[in-house]
Amino acid sequence: MVNQVGRYAASDEVDDFLLMKMVMELPEKDKMVMWSQGYLDSVIEKLPEYARDILENRKQKWEDTKEFYQQQIEEILSDEEFIKQSKGERKLFALFVMEHYRDLQSLLFAAYDGKITDEDIRKFVYRRRFGGRKKYLH
Q1: pLDDT the model gives residue 120
Q2: DSSP designation for 114
Q3: What are phi and psi of 3, to 5 degrees?
Q4: Alpha-carbon span 86 to 88, nearest angstrom
Q5: Cα torsion at 20, 50, 125, 134 (round to 10°)?
Q6: What mean pLDDT is predicted for residues 84-93?
Q7: Average pLDDT of the chain?
Q8: Spatial CB neighbours of 97, under 8 Å, sequence gap ≥ 6
Q9: Distance between CA atoms of 108 and 98, rounded to whole angstroms?
Q10: ∠ CA(31), CA(48), CA(6), 5° rounding?
Q11: Longest pairwise C-alpha distance within the chain
Q12: Residues 54, 113: Cα–Cα separation, whole Å
């Protein structure tokens, strides 16, 4: 689902000053939604040159975070214990992942099934930043 800024940037007639104003008024969460859904680059292209760093700096920060999680997943996937557990029964493997890698389990299960995509990691980064679930200490 594309937000109003994304729809406006995709239209044929774009006033770059109005687009810049719309981007400036967006909360951080909505800017990150545009990145996680993959259409932030098209918005950046339509912005005037002097205003592009508004989004480019944030985009770089989010991309760095995405790279961090990708590296973590790759390290876990190459871990001997993880490989050993993944070759066993699926239920025992799921319990192993839930016990040892609770925070990354959604990405690990997607990688285990061979279906992990760049979009999955972007959405994961977004959910980590603006997730609805609260973690309580008991």
Answers
A1: 92
A2: T
A3: -80, 180
A4: 5
A5: -60
A6: 90
A7: 88
A8: 85, 105, 108, 109, 112
A9: 10
A10: 35
A11: 58
A12: 37
